[in-house]
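User: quick one, fold this
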Amino acid sequence: MKEDYGNLLKEFERLTPNERMKYMVKQQEEFLNGIDSGKLIEKIRKFRTLNIKDMKIEEIANAISEVLTWNSVFYYLL
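Assistant:
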């Protein structure tokens, strides 16, 4: 099902700043809850074992992208 981003944006604009913050926190929590921790750990382990000295810049960029994305969405954890 495609989301109608125009309508979603209009609804978001109607929210107060406090409601916007709550909405964004909720979206972030839902996204992070959808991440499989086991798969994430495997991605990080795989990345840590790479021999970066012998890799081309493009290969390193792809490896970093693979670790920092989930379902084609960029994320980072503090």
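User: anything notable?
Assistant: The helical segments are 5-14, 17-33, 37-48, 57-68.
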